[in-house]
Known about the structure:
The complex is a heterodimer. Chain A is mainly alpha-helical.
Amino acid sequence: MTALLVASVGAATVLSLAALGGLIAERAGVLSIGLEGYMLVGAFAGVWGSHLGGASLGLLLAVTAATVFAAFHAVLSVTMRLNQIVAGVMMNLLALGTTSFANQAIFGPGGASPVPGFHPLSIPGLSTIPLLGKALFRQNLFTYLAIAAVVTIAVFLGHSRAGLALKAVGEHPLAAETRGISVLRVRYAAVLFSGAMCGLAGAALSIGTVDVFVENMTQGRGFLAVAAVIAAAWRPLWVVAACLMFGIADAAQVWAQVFAIHIPHQILGMAPYLVTLLALVLLQRRPAMPAALGRPFAREAV
Amino acid sequence: MSMVGSSWVSLKVLAQSRPFTTVLAAALSLLMMGALTAAVGVSPIDAYQEMWSADLGSSLALATTLTTALPLILVALGFVVAYHAGIFNIGLEGQLYTGALTALLVGSHMHVPALVHVPISLLAGAAAGATWAALPALLKLLGNVNEIVSSLMLNFVAILLIGWLVGGPLKDSAAASPQSVPVSHSAQLPTVFGMPSGLIVTLLAAGLIAWLLARTKLGFEMRTAGASAVVAKRVGIDTHKVVLLSFLMSGGLAGLAGAVELTGNQLVLTENFSSSWGFTGVAVALIGGLSPWGSIFAGLFFAGLTRAGDVMQFTLSVPVSFALIVEAVAVLLVLSSVYLRSGALALRWPRQRKRASKSKSGLEVHPT
């Protein structure tokens, strides 16, 4: 049981970091279909940095590279007002191509051998609590960062002026702009933030879990993070709850060991997507989606 | 609800300048290919020579390039047909997988002569793709669920379903890694003069879509709904019918792509059956200027790049993934060029700029 919880929290960490970043971008009105690509860039840069100068450099490089990558995406979808779906899909293809290319060009066809990574840190006292202690307080750095991030983001969105400005930009950019909020600046900041969070998520996946990079190692987790944001109706605490649930499905291999029943992991893997579809159907009565999501904004038109 | 926004307009500009866009993209792609091969220390001249011989050097090379192009073109056609009706189908990947699965089931379980077996397998694949695409359409029409999100989610459901089937109920017990039993010989697409006969199917599909969009009442209704759902409703077009039919055709083409690839090339189904064609096909459609014929040329071109990548991986140790980079960057550059040409840089002509920006302001009526 503990093994299941530990594995689920580990999987949920990766998803939560990415989903919280996506949440901020979407609340500012920018579709986050590119999360998958940002994460992949982060995962590769993490391994590369760690290979060059240890795990800390890996973390730094992961966040930097994913943020820069997100900045490109912001130029396309915020400044150039390209179709955000198309831009997101292309950024994902670009990330897949670039990381696979760089991986082979730098490390040769076999990829890098394991690099230094982050290992679980026990929090004294708390980690000895039965069941939950090990799952929550004997994880690596990334889990603690994710917990800190969700608290910060919940407070930011719910109780700060800047959070209000961000939501205004996502709901009614024209109104926000007339109140003196720069829609462009807020959207840039939001997309860059989502890039940084996905950099962390990618690093959590590569140097926080297996210490190697594998081509396309995100395997749709970025889309799963988008799904979590939608299933949670764009609310931070619910996002993390959704990620935890998705994490349990992701830890499917452990299920079989714990409960001695064999559910094919693909069947469990479908659950998050089906839950998201169900949530979309059920949430129709209460529109939760930011009203201006996916709509480019042109300042000159004000 | 519109998640599509006013960038619709910029894609329209793209559709109006087809030959220019496609030629520009092809030229840029070749330049980028040279730059990327140079980056890993390989002479671009060698790379171009290798590409030539890999793609067109022999009739076998040509046949392989054509085979590689078919799923790309068919998926691109699927994107194009829905696009003109104002619908973004990004569930093409899942529809392709369900098409391949159904073509496999029909192609391996029925016992009929090839003359019947081949077309029936292909049709079954197309029908399955259409059925999978009907789900987001119905969710949109009945439950007001955003079709972009739902079709994206259904991709993963389909891929996971196939992953389970080829490792479980449909697994070929003789194979080491999870893969399905092969399609029967009678269901395999034959070659005609050494060339894949799937090409005929693909050309027919492109012709049919071009004709549908340009010449038929339904095509007119689709394009009207794509331009403005409000106008379409006002002139009495049944927009629900348009949404449903567009999704069915789009998914049908993606399903056909899966069926053609399965019966004409891979013959067995695996978890990694598709090389992200559901997404690279979108790139092909955009490079092809969102037209059916443009999709054919863009599909052939990118198939040429992909084949060159496959070969150069071995002969010159150039990572095969360069083709993906080239594809994505080409699309992004072309789309950016649309932005640059659409008045955003025309600061010296304020009046023109004003008009251009107004049409992109997000204030006008949107499709979907």
